[in-house]
Amino acid sequence: MTPPPIAPETIEQYTFLLDHAGFVDVGDRTQIRVTGADRVRFLQGFCTNDIKRLVRGTGCEAFLTNAKGKLVGHVFVFCGSEDLTLETSPGQGETIVRHLDRYVIRENVQFHDLQARAVEFFVAGQHAAAALAALVGGPVPDGLLAHQTGNVSGVPISVRRVPLAVVPAFLVSCPAERSDELGRRLIAGGVRPCAAEVFDIARVEAGFPLFGRDINEDCLPQEVNRDAAAISFTKGCYLGQETVARIDALGHVNRKLVGLRWFGADALPAGQELTVAGQPIGRVTSVVWSPRQQTVLALAQLRSGFAQGGLRLETSSGAAEVIDWFSARVDIATNDASV
Fold this sequence. Notes:
By secondary structure, the chain is of the alpha+beta class. The chain is built from eight helices and 19 strands.
């Protein structure tokens, strides 16, 4: 199969990131700081994971759900000594803050959308941890969603270990007005700047969805296929919990987000409907060319009957193999994956 167009410099950047350390400016991602004495108790009532178990320096993945159990957001939650930080896909700040704020009655909780005040860099690679440690003058988090604050030549940063690549990966946040300086420090430390496309390749290889592209407000949590990472079935009541618990009891959703390894001769565009024997079975949401696997990889929402890892599909657009990254060979503790 002829690979789809991808710039040679993008392949070179991706390869350097994978084998060494690279960074991508992801400053458009959403960060929301939650403060107030009731912040933990309040957020516990509006998301699928157990916020109360978090201690300073730890984090979790979670879904925010509405009263019907549908998604409002898909977030990382990082616990600080005086706040919680919600981190997620671009453009979600206003929606999430509005959703949560409408339920505040007398609780001491405040929401601060950091869109204009803080930016992030995606830093990843086999030597990313060592490069960041050298910059901050000490070890960096090695547990999934562990995080800590630090300082790089006077630039205050937060370093957060995240499951956004098949190699060690971090989100490094800093004040917006110091982002150029931090970028220069990363380059001076041997971390290579990479194009935005490299981040997309990394996250699709890791099977990680973007809200607004791969999943949206019409999805139920179990359809995202990240139950083990993002849902606690023992934490107790929260908004939408009845729907989530009912699906768990029935053991079935109508569709599921999975990966595809594409064998078709033609290009596979995002949004492409997939059909088998003339019947629609789902649609493609994200597509990348993977230099690591030398093939086209995609994320797709498929009808549950076809969302089985290893299943070979002959669609109207071409052949594909279903990859269920998360339930197959993903080591949550080390953020390593093999597909």
